[in-house]
């Protein structure tokens, strides 16, 4: 049941003031207008709210319950006004989405911020570009990082850095010169971003080789495990350099090619007409500093 807010305000004022005439004066209404609002509420609720005794009145049980409801509405509105005015940089939800590689790099920094300010609630989803933009459009996150600037006008994007893409092999690989024969003989460890990374890196090589001609030795969609089969000698893969260097398997890996011309740009994206809360300032600064220096 949706009650008319103006009628409720008239009723609550009447209870506070205690007289119809004074209520009409305070609300800039006529006395019959006040009576009409009360009568409409009683008709909608199907119960009497007042028992008139001359110029005074007493509340019925229904009237008492309704007055308490009016008071709770006033309290909630005050809380809402306070919440709208309060923009605490050290409290509230902070929602992000980005690739698993970037999440591995940034999330530990985000968690340290949350430890210093427990009022923050940090959420990070590892997702490909399309998923990041979908989450933004659905208001499920407030900031995302993608590798291509979105075409839709509703998004604002800012280039914040780039990643060096590499081909990484087992440390036991003795050959130092990349060739089509070496890539074919070693085999490829596939992962969700591998084809895109590999396409970029292959353009940087002195020979031509379509990625679909490579034998696939395995597939894994968990970023923390992608380099495990590589470290064990099962194949090579393509990943950003930061992921390789920070891997627990780094000592069992060997980078044979760092892409010079094919670097993957990174863009910080948000909704164009949405102002971010002040608590995001630290995170955006952290993202810029971390990715521009990497």
TrEMBL record:
Keywords: DNA-binding, Transcription, Transcription regulation. Gene3D superfamilies: Periplasmic binding protein-like II, Winged helix-like DNA-binding domain superfamily/Winged helix DNA-binding domain. SUPFAM superfamilies: Periplasmic binding protein-like II, Winged helix' DNA-binding domain. PROSITE patterns: HTH_LYSR (PS50931). Transmembrane segments: none annotated. Belongs to the LysR transcriptional regulatory family. This is LysR family transcriptional regulator. It comes from Photobacterium halotolerans.
């Amino acid at each position: 049941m949706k009650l008319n807010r103006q009628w409720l305000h008239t009723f609550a004022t009447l209870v506070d003031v205690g007289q119809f005439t004074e209520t009409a004066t305070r609300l800039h209404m006529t006395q019959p207008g006040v009576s009409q609002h009360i009568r409409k509420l009683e008709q909608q609720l199907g119960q009497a709210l007042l028992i008139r005794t001359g110029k005074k009145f007493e509340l019925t049980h229904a009237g008492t319950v309704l007055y308490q409801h009016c008071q709770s509405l006033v309290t909630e509105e005050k809380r809402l006004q306070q919440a709208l005015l309060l923009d605490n940089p050290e409290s509230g939800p902070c929602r992000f989405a980005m690739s698993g590689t970037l999440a591995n790099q940034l999330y530990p920094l985000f968690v340290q911020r949350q430890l210093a300010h427990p009022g923050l609630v940090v959420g990070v989803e590892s997702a490909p570009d399309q998923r990041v933009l979908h989450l933004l459009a659905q208001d499920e996150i407030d900031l995302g990082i993608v590798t291509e600037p979105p075409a839709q006008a509703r998004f604002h994007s800012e280039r914040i850095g780039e990643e060096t893409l590499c081909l990484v092999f087992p440390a036991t690989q003795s050959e130092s010169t990349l060739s089509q024969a070496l890539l074919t003989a070693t085999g490829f460890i596939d992962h969700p971003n591998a084809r895109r990374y590999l396409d970029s890196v292959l353009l940087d090589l002195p020979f031509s080789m379509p990625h679909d001609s490579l034998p696939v030795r395995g597939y894994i969609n968990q970023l923390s495990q992608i380099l495990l089969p590589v470290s064990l000698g099962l194949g090579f893969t393509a990943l950003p350099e930061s992921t390789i260097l920070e891997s627990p398997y780094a000592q069992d890996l060997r980078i044979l090619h760092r892409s010079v011309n094919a670097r993957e740009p990174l863009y910080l994206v948000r909704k164009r007409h949405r102002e971010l809360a002040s608590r995001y300032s630290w995170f955006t600064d952290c993202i810029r500093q971390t990715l521009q220096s990497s």
